[in-house]
Amino acid sequence: MQPASSWTIVVPVKGTDAAKSRFGADARRLDLAEAMALDTVEAALQVAAVLVVGSGDLSPFAELGALTMPEEPGDGLNGAIERAVATVQGSVAVLLADLPALRPDELAAALVENSMVPDADGTGTTLITGRVPAFGAGSRAAHRALGYRELELPATSGLRLDVDSPESLAAIPPARLGPRTLRLL
């Protein structure tokens, strides 16, 4: 699939020891967080330009072909996204990095101005196509309140299968997982 040159996808990545904290003491926690983010970014790069904003070592994302931008102290998730989005000309989407089952065709079909995709649980958001983020607890309702139109996608879409816990990762069929995530399992 050729990248859609009119879009840039901003992907925030938490590269700290706090990444995937709901995985608890799992020794693979940080490696899984990075693997899922790399699988997500690789899928997104097949659709559009990608700008990864985050803390920690961003060089693996640059090696894939993504642009990178370091998070500033005190940014927080939405602050880092806002800074990154401000550098983008043209259409912009924000995609969360914990979507290891994402397929490029699913993402390409969701790049519709001023839209959003809820997570499989129905309370969060995995994608917005606009410049005003409201990620965090209850982001689905917050993004709706901002005027984003919700796209109707099946709960089995890789665009909805965000991984926040060992249970959510185990619920994804292995055949759907990206290669790096699958290798760690």
Please summarize what this structure is.
By secondary structure, the chain is an alpha/beta fold. Helix content is 32%, strand content 17%.
- The number of strands is 7
Residue share in helix? 25-40%
Strand order, largest beta sheet: 3-2-1-4-6-5-7
Q: Calculate the terminal CA-CA distance, rounded to whole Å.
A: 28 Å
Shape: globular
Relevant CATH superfamily: Spore Coat Polysaccharide Biosynthesis Protein SpsA, Chain A
Number of domains: 1
CATH topology: Spore Coat Polysaccharide Biosynthesis Protein SpsA, Chain A
CATH class category name: Alpha Beta
Largest sheet data: 7 strands, mixed
Structural class: alpha/beta
Low-confidence stretches: none
Q: Report the total helices.
A: 7
How would you spell out the order of helices and strands? EHEHEHEHEEHEHH
Mean pLDDT: 91
CATH architecture: Alpha-Beta Complex
Rg, Cα atoms, Å: 15 Å
Strand content: 15-25%
How does this structure look, described?
By secondary structure, the protein is α/β, with parallel strands linked by helices. The mean pLDDT is 91. It is globular. The protein starts with 6 loop residues before the first strand and ends with a helix. The longest helix has 17 residues, at 29-45. Strand 1 (7-13), helix 1 (29-45) and strand 2 (49-54) form a beta-alpha-beta unit. It has helices at residues 29-45, 59-64, 76-86, 104-110, 139-145, 166-170, 179-184, and strands at 7-13, 49-54, 67-70, 91-95, 115-118, 125-128, 149-150.
